[in-house]
Amino acid sequence: MASLMKKVQTLISANLHAMVDAALKANSLAVFDHYVREVEDNLEDLEDAVATVGGELKSLRRRKADQEQKAAELDRSIDVFLREGKEDLALAAQSRLNSINRLVQNYDEMLQRQEAEYQSLKDARLKLEAKLTTVKQEREELQVLLDLARSKELTAQTIKSLDGLMGSGDADISRVAEGIRSRLDKASARSEMLAASLDSQMDEVLEKSTLEAQLAERKSRLGL
Fold this sequence. Notes:
By secondary structure, this protein is mainly alpha-helical. Helices cover 93% and strands 0% of the residues. It has one domain (2-222).
């Protein structure tokens, strides 16, 4: 369980800005895809851990309730024995009651530890799910940006080729090449405008995602 929580905390604290920089530098979403796979695998393990600890909690509460019921019955029996003057039976019952009360106290301590672990697991699951949602949103934005970058590279290569054609000395070829180049310049300008807009959107998503994650964490603390 400790190793799982360590992995989960590492994933939760992953630096998204560094991931974005790495993806853009490599011109690849591999770093995001790897992170998503890691999160999804650990989320599955986390779900299983939450269910396991939750089941153990229910069992502990049931066993504690059973012992508390036995303690109540013994307590009433002791009073009856004393009224009837059966001191030996009262002593034996009191000794057994003391043992049961100690067991109930042990159950209380176990329940406190188990409930703390259960809440910790649920909080970790909530945070990891929020991080996964944010990363998937980032991935979609980056995919568009990378596609635009590849398109602009292709445009640049085409313009370079047209420059060669325009210098070949053929007036017709030069005229056609100039027309194509003008259209490519317009397409390139449109791409740059869209890329700038997407950069702005990406910053907004990053900020919005951060705020949403903070609110989710605060709601979790407040039990909302």
